[in-house]
Amino acid sequence: MCLGIPMQIKSIDGFTACCDAKGVERDVSLFMMQDNELKVGDHVVVHVGYAIQKISNQEAQTAWQMYDQMMDANT
Questions:
Q1: In CA terms, which of 7, 57, 63, 74 is 20 to 30 Å from 23?
Q2: Chain centre to alpha carbon of residue 17
Q3: How far is CA 70 from the centre of its chain?
Q4: Residues 27 and 17 sit within 8 Å (Cβ to Cβ)
Q5: 3-state SS class at 53
């Protein structure tokens, strides 16, 4: 199973963005989305270090609610 993580862009430098998810920051490649207009504050789905899709804030929140429910079910 592959899992994409919703992250919010905090800064952009060329094809690299510093992104945040629940307080965890990672450098993410924007190379695969170079034809999309991305800006600080946007949410993207990240898979193996690459942004693969732009999503809305609501979609990101919904995804995190579902992930939290899955983690709660495992405890």
A1: 74
A2: 10
A3: 18
A4: yes
A5: strand
